[in-house]
Amino acid sequence: MPPALEQPFRIGPLTLDSRVILAPMCGVCDVPYLKLLRRFDQRSLIFHEMFSAVGLVHWKSRLKVDIPPGLRPLGLQIFGHEPETMGQAARILAAAGTDVIDLNLGCPVPKIAKNCDGSGLLRDLPLLGRILTAMVGAVGDQVPVTIKMRLGWDEEMRNHVAVARLAESCGVQMITVHGRTRSQMYSGSADWEAIAEVASAVSVPVVGNGDLWDPLIAAERLKASGCAGVMIGRGAQGNPWIIPRIDTYLKTGEMPPEPAPDVRLGVAREHCRLLIEEKGEAQGVPECRKHVAWYTKGLPGSAELRHAVNQTRTAEALFAVLDDYALPA
Ligand SMILES: Cc1cc2nc3c(=O)[nH]c(=O)nc-3n(C[C@H](O)[C@H](O)[C@H](O)COP(=O)(O)O)c2cc1C
Questions:
Q1: Ligand 1, closest atom to CA 148?
Q2: Euclidean distance between CA atoms 140 and 173, whole angstroms
Q3: What whole-number distance in Å separates Cα of residue 197 and Cα of residue 226?
């Protein structure tokens, strides 16, 4: 067994009983989705979508972090670039009740990255060092600070090992690596050899991320890379089961079956209910559309269902469309 897998999976004072982590995803990993996922998995660390540090600290109508009980082990993530603000934001997240506080070093969206936030920080390591020192100084004795990074800004600036070593020297307790550069966005495939380079360069746990679509691939990548854990993003869209399925496969070598179509449909319905309950009809119904599309992808008649769902404006109409959708016997 690779050395990382012989050790318990520890992030500072936290010991995790699963090596699988749900990735933070804007517009996906909100409270309704996290609540739903917890019905299938109570062990894995799950990340909420990122928060703006400036929004938490400075906006007039400050972002509220309202985390219900029952979601832990939970990770909260911030993006931003001003060290003092980042330290203050970390304190706000620590008070909200979280098991880790993560710094986003991966977001490639131009308006964020060009502002030296997200992956933009990979181009300014002195500033990154000051931010991490501020965050660890603010909360490090209560909550572990972690980072989630890409391999670098672009092919010419692949500085993943330098970023990881800097983070470790600042007191960061876990490093997640998405195996792409910022300029790749989501093109090509994740470079798991580069992820392995990070795993062998630092002594804190490294978590590999990128293109893990099923338990077999996840298990292979975990073993070959020397990582302590794997993080799942797009593979968990409309598919909360992937997290416990990978966990079970890693622990037992047995492959849990994929959920049956009627189960997928029932969970899609429940996800919509939770989302509308949390956000109200006007915001919730449009947000349900992409989730229904993900849950039903590949099912017979799913294109027609998607089309019908996209026309709905009310919860009543949305649930009527879902009820009318008949799976072939
Ligand atoms: C819709 C979407 C939203 C995302 N939002 C975030 C985010 O808030 N914070 C972050 O660090 N990464 C974010 N990511 C990146 C993912 O966490 C992950 O690193 C990336 O999708 C690669 O993993 P995957 O191949 O398993 O999807 C997002 C990705 C997607 C597709």
A1: 11
A2: 9
A3: 9
Q: What are the φ/ψ torsions at residue 153 (nearest 5 degrees)?
A: -70, -50
Stated as kind and residue range, the H or E segment containing 261 is: helix 261-279
Do the strands 100-105 and 20-22 form a parallel or antiparallel pair, or are they unpaired?
unpaired
CA gap 241, 183 in Å, rounded = 31
Confidence of residue 213 (pLDDT cuts 50, 70, 90): very high
Query: Which tokens hold the place of 62?
Result: 């400050």
Average pLDDT over residues 175-189: 97
Minimal-distance CA residue to ligand 1 atom 22:
210
284 touches ligand 1 (CB under 6 Å): no
For 231, 247, 289, the CA distances from 227, given in Å and listed in that order, are 11, 15, 35
The string of DSSP codes covering 1-19 is: --HHHHS-EEETTEEES-S
**Ordered structural domains, the chain, with CATH:** 3-252 (3.20.20.70), 261-324 (1.10.1200)
Residue 150, phi then psi, degrees to nearest 5: -95, 180
The total number of residues shown for the chain amounts to 329
Query: Does residue 49 have its Cβ closer than 6 Å to ligand 1?
Result: yes
pLDDT in tens, 134-153: 999 999 999 999 999 999 99
Please determine, for residue 40, whether its predicted confidence score (pLDDT) is greater than 90: yes
Confidence of residue 172 (pLDDT cuts 50, 70, 90): very high
Residue 61 pLDDT more than 80?
Answer: no
Question: pLDDT tens-digit profile of 251-289?
Answer: 999 999 999 999 999 999 999 999 999 999 999 999 999
Cβ contact 294:239 at 8 Å = yes
| Active site (annotated) includes residue 26 | no
Beta bridge partners of 142: none
Question: Residue 205 carries which DSSP code?
Answer: -
- Could you tell me how far CA 67 lies from the centroid of its own chain? 16
What is the C-alpha separation between 161 and 76, in angstroms, rounded? 24
Q: How far is the CA of 326 from the centre of ligand 1 (A)?
A: 33
